[in-house]
Amino acid sequence: MWSERAADGRTRVTALIRLNVALLLREPGPIASRLLMPLVMMSVLAPLYRDAFSSSGVQAGSRQVVAGMLVMFSLLALSIVGSAVLTERMWRTWDRQRATSAAAWELLLGKAVPACVVLLAQQVLVLAFGAVALGLDVPNVGLVGLVVAVWVFTLLCLGTALGAFARSHSELAVFYDLGGITLTVLGGALLPISMMPGWLRAVAPVSPGYWAMQALRAALAGQLGPMTQAVCVLLALALVAGVLASLRITRGWSRSRLM
Amino acid sequence: MAEEALAATDLVKSYRDRRFGDVLALDRFSLTAVCGEIVGLVGANGAGKTTFVETVAGLIRPDSGSVRILGIDMLRAPRMARRRLGFAPQEHAMYVSATVRENLDVFGGLAGLRNFALRDAVAEISEEMKLTGLMDRPLGWLSGGQWRRAQVATAMLGRPGLLLLDEPTAGADPPTRQAMLAAVRARAADGAAIVYTTHYLPELTDLGATLAVVKDGRVIARGDQQDLLAGLPGEVRARFDGPVPASLRNQGRLDGEELVMNSTDPGQTLASLLAAGHTPESVDIRRPSLDDLYRSLDTASGHVV
Questions:
Q1: Which of B57, B59, B112 is closest, CB to CB, to A8?
Q2: Rg (chain A; Cα; Å)
Q3: Which positions ≥6 away from A189 have C-beta within 8 Å?
Q4: For residues B66-88, b (16+ Cβ closer than 10 Å) or e, as one string?
Q5: Nearest CB to B102: which of A19, A91, A97?
Q6: Which residues of chain A are within 8 Å of residue B85 when distances are taken between CB atoms?
Q7: Spatial separation of the C-alpha atoms in residues A190 and A207, rounded to whole Å
Q8: Which of A20, A196, B93, B303 is the Cys-Cys partner for A92 at CB 3.0 to 4.6 Å?
Q9: How far apart (Å, rounded) are the C-alpha atoms in residues B114 and B105?
């Protein structure tokens, strides 16, 4: 009985993953741009950052540019997750799925796995490019891997929540354009926090990007304490966003929740 | 006695709307259907049909009342209940950029079908719904009728015990409608109960469906078509050689050169015309239809369940 249910669950999740992979691959433009753009930006900005951070050591500039672009473009990659969720709502396919015996977590898993692979690929590509092309030193791959995994999980939860609450693609685009850029800047991805005015430094911790930057910088420098603290904040943010998204998705949407 | 596939009892659902005030969408809505039965759910727009269907599908939680699907309580064990359910909503609800095959595969997978069972079920339903030549086309390329067929096909995968089809033939051409009705009849013959909402009342006659007439969020009439039509007046249209005799004009209404009389007993009506010395040149008798039933109930204030 239990094994039959588990097999049914696997069948449902596999069917959803297969479909979502097919849908992602049918429109490869956004994925390709999210994967390639950070590499281009890193190549352009690396010399500038190295010069600007030369007084802080050889690795400081590389760390800033790699961590910064990784956070910036992963925040922009939120659009992949959020759009996928919102598109399901616009197509009314969420309701079709909810009317099956699939559990809410199965539906989310089927949606999240392909997006997770894209986000992980992006992070690994940025880090690998940083190490190979920009000479970034990664002393502890395990720590960096842990931060990347937590950050990807946080992004999935944030993206799902945005997709669950937005009422249209244009509303979602505003979240990404304004929210993504604001959080990137606030997070210190473009300009180190230490160079910001006082009031910006004070509000910077509201950005998930800030904590991602802190965690990545600490992981790259092998500093376990600061990294753990930042990872805990990211997990808390993920938890809040994930719970809100799950509640919203489980409850469903009335017809007026789309524009 | 056939097993009860659906038992919805005293469902109440109201919506709060700041702009338009509270709306009572379901007002002690009750409906049962047994296995093999096709229930035609008819009613005006906004009567509560779709809210009812979505409540049975588990998409809307009622304020009170209960829904049992093949004996399983939808509110207490929703996933188990949904396992026995197929649902095709009124609006288009499939993956636009995916092909027909991909749509069938994913909804088959969600119904728990895999490997050979999935392949066979997809092949069978695509044949039945005349989709075989369209399988590798994206949904976005299909016509409205083809889309409808594909959507109903996704709901029928896995042979659920209860099928909820919300206006499945809206906007469909005659061949699409025929294919759909044949598939619905076949599912009912296999033992599935089907709740079928529509505004095309002749379809329900074709399907031999029992009727549930919905008004203001509740079922106001329920039963066999013949039972519900019994006692309703049909029409007798009489044409005379020349104008309608003046002495008959108060027996009905005039429609051009014809006298139109509502009658529950056309034979008696004709006999009384002849007895009065008026022999019509031609007579056209129209039996009461579902449209008449619908109109009579729509204007009635009381409940006739």
A1: B112
A2: 19
A3: A67, A68, A69, A71, A72, A75, A209, A213
A4: ebbbbebebeeebbebbbbbbbb
A5: A19
A6: 99
A7: 13
A8: B93
A9: 9
Query: What total of structural domains would you count in chain A?
Result: 1
**CATH, range B1-84+160-231+288-305:** 3.40.50.300
Angle, CA of A195, A201 and A203, to the nearest 5°:
150
Q: Is the pLDDT of residue A111 over 90?
A: no
What is the phi/psi pair of residue B21, to 5°? 80, 175
Phi (first) and psi of residue B209, to 5 degrees: -80, 150
Residues of A whose CB is below 8 A from B58: 98-99
Q: Rg of chain B's alpha carbons, rounded to an integer?
A: 23
CB contact under 8 A, A101 and B80: yes
Amino acid sitting at position B86 = G
What residues of chain A lie within 8 A of the CB of B83, using their CB? Answer: 101
Residue A207: partners with Cβ closer than 8 Å, 6 or more residues away:
A182, A183, A184, A186, A187
| pTM of the predicted protein model | 0.82
Would you call B94 an interface residue with chain A, using a CB distance cutoff of 8 Å? Answer: yes
Structure tokens at B194: 């089907």
Among A50-64, A180-194, B159-173, name the most confident range.
B159-173
Question: Residues A38, A134: contact at Cβ < 8 Å?
Answer: no
Partners of residue B111 in chain A, C-beta under 8 Å: 100-101
Residue window 146-205, chain B: list those with CB within 8 Å of chain A.
154
Contact B158, B111 (CB under 8 A): yes
Scanning chain B, the segments in alpha helix (DSSP H) are 49-56, 78-82, 100-110, 115-128, 144-156, 174-189, 201-207, 225-229, 266-275, 290-299
Torsion angles phi and psi, residue B254, rounded to 5: -95, 135
ipTM rounded to 2 decimals: 0.80
Residue from B74, B106, B163 to probe the interface with A (highest A Cβ count within 10 Å): B106
Helices A224-251/A208-220 angle, 10° precision: 140
Range of the domain at A133: 2-257
List Cβ neighbours of B239 (8 Å cut-off, separation of 6 or more).
Answer: B257, B258, B259, B280, B281, B282, B283
Residue ranges of chain B that CATH labels 3.40.50.300: 1-84+160-231+288-305
Please identify every stretch of chain B with a pLDDT value under 50, giving residue numbers as ranges: 301-305
Indicate the pLDDT class of residue A1, thresholds 50, 70 and 90.
Answer: low
Cα separation, A249 vs A108, whole angstroms: 9
Contacts A19 to B, Cβ<8 Å: 95, 98, 102, 105-106
| 3-state SS assignment for residue B120 | helix
pLDDT (tens digit per residue) in A199-253: 888 988 988 989 999 999 899 888 999 999 999 999 999 999 988 988 887 776 6
Give B159's DSSP letter. -
| Chain A nearest CA to B209, separation (Å) | 24
The token duo for A61 is: 């500039």
